[in-house]
Amino acid sequence: MDHGAPTQKSDRDRIRQKRGAANKEIAKAARRAVKAWNDGGDGASLIAALAQIVKKADAS
């Protein structure tokens, strides 16, 4: 029995929408970092940017 989960469908949908929006922002940031690398950016800066994105995602 999970007492911490929302019981209303509208609450679950709202949480799902927020998480989906967060995932979309994470994907956009990762694509921008990879594009900068493909355009001639430094590989080390790509790894640092991706690490920052992952760290930010874990904090959310």
Strand residues, percent:
under 5%
Rg is 16 Å
The counted number of beta strands is 0
Shape: elongated
- Give start-end ranges of low-pLDDT stretches: none
Instruction: Report the span from N to C terminus.
Output: 25 Å
Give the H and E element order.
Answer: HH
Biggest sheet details: none
With helices defined by DSSP (H or I, 4 residues minimum), what is the helix count?
2
How much helical structure, as a percent, in the residues?
over 70%
Structural classification: mainly alpha
Query: Overall pLDDT, averaged?
Result: 88
Describe this structure in words.
The model has no long low-confidence stretch (mean pLDDT 88). The chain contains two helices and no strands. It is mainly alpha-helical and 60 residues long. Helix 1 (9-38) runs antiparallel to helix 2. The two termini are 25 Å apart.
Features:
mainly alpha, 2 helices, 60 residues
What is this entry, summarized?
The protein is an all-alpha fold. It is 78% helix and 0% strand.
Which SSEs are present, and which pair or pack?
Blueprint: H1 9-38, H2 43-59
